[in-house]
Amino acid sequence: NLTQLIEKAIAQYNHHTVLRFVKRTDEPNYVCFLKDKGCYSFLGRVGGVQNISLGDGCGYVGTIVHQLGHTIGLFHEHQRTDRDKYLNIYRNNVISGQEYHFQKTASYNELIFTSYDYTSIMHYGEYAFSKEPGKLKTMEAKDGTPLKEPYQKPGLTSNDIKTINKLYKY
């Protein structure tokens, strides 16, 4: 049941970070889960309703934790400006039109509080947007660490939690 998965994902933020997601009553800014095409959310607070799409194939706790991460302003780990120290990116293996998923974050937008985290919920897997998934890797850890997709992960890592708590500490 998707509602239960959403509740489990939210519980990770509520139990491990300074953030608290609560059921909406009349708050002007809120998150709304909907079933659209794909798994996505805008990056950071947009004001008013903030949609998180959980379309077909998005029904995993890790995927929902990942999309909530975007909602609170987290960028992809594999797009950090220092990622080339840790990853090889194989652009020729990326589906045409999907290359933007592998661009580095603009340095003026970036706040790095932790060491590079291959297991971050915000890190894509090694076949993300591959022309031939399972055959052509789009990225690979230089130290050989296997890179899993968010849906294959249980949720927030200790580094994810540190980053969130640093961003929202008040």
Can you walk me through this structure?
This protein has 170 residues and is of the alpha+beta class. The chain has helices at residues 2-16, 61-71, 158-168, and strands spanning 30-34, 39-41, 49-54, 87-89, 139-141. The strands form 2 sheets. A 3-stranded mixed sheet has the order 1-3-2, covered by helices on one side. A two-stranded antiparallel ribbon has the order 4-5.
- Give the neighbour order of strands across the main sheet: 1-3-2
Counting DSSP E segments of at least 2 residues, the number of strands comes to 5
Query: Which spans of ≥5 residues are poorly predicted at pLDDT below 50?
Result: none
What's the Cα radius of gyration? 16 Å
Q: Total number of helical segments? A: 3
SSE order: HEEEHEEH
| Biggest pleated sheet | 3 strands, mixed
Shape: globular
What fraction of residues sit in β-strands? 5-15%
Share of helical residues: 10-25%
* Mean pLDDT score: 95
Structural class per helix/strand content?
Answer: alpha+beta
